[in-house]
Design brief:
By secondary structure, the chain is an all-alpha fold. The protein has helices spanning about 5-15, 15-40, 40-60, 70-90, 105-135, 135-150, 155-160, 165-185. It is globular, with a radius of gyration of 20 Å.
């Protein structure tokens, strides 16, 4: 019989090595997908996923509810990815500061347009992430799990210990809140 995350966490805390291996096997692909979706770079995502799993296992004693291991681990992965993005942004020189001198005007204009579009897209993503992070815990949790874990309503309901109707209601509410906030910020 397949053990729950909570059972595996408790076994890890009791020193059972195989339970640790089972948790890593169960969550490594999900966390990799989560990180890849966040950073858009497979190689960086692999490193970030490993860092997230390592932090999660090292901090396992701080987990208050072993049944919420997946959600907790995704929160760790989110912070790892956000830290990586912040560090990367502060160390990069934006394309727009490059001197287009010596290049044909058409090429310079195309490069400027592409850079501006990229900045706009990054601003939209940043704004969306900020709004998601400002949602209440149940709304933020349901959005993160649904969109980054690629799970069904039934799987979410089991994972969170709620009904599928509650999953549907929380997702609907979270989307409506985000839509309202994002439309308001564009005005």
């Amino acid at each position: 019989m397949l053990k729950t995350d909570g059972e595996l966490v408790r076994q890890v805390l009791q020193g059972e090595r195989t339970a640790c291996d089972d948790l890593v096997r169960r969550w490594s692909a999900r966390i990799l997908a989560f990180c890849h979706a966040r950073v858009g770079n497979h190689h960086a995502a692999e490193d970030l996923a490993q860092e997230s799993l390592l932090r999660g296992l090292r901090g396992l004693r701080t987990l208050e509810s072993p049944e919420q291991f997946g959600t907790w681990l995704c929160g760790i992965a989110l912070r790892v990815c956000l830290d990586w993005r912040k560090a990367k942004q502060s160390s990069q020189v934006p394309f727009t500061v490059l001197d287009p001198a010596g290049r044909p005007d058409e090429l310079a204009a195309t490069a400027r347009d592409a850079a501006e579009a990229n900045v706009d897209r990054m601003d939209d993503v940043r704004r969306l992430l900020e709004e998601i992070e400002s949602l209440s815990e149940p709304h933020r949790e349901i959005l993160m799990l649904y969109y980054y874990q690629d799970v069904t309503y039934r799987e979410l309901a089991e994972m969170l210990g709620v009904s599928t109707a509650t999953v549907n209601a929380r997702l609907t509410q979270a989307r409506a809140i985000l839509r309202e906030r994002l439309v308001a910020t564009r005005r």
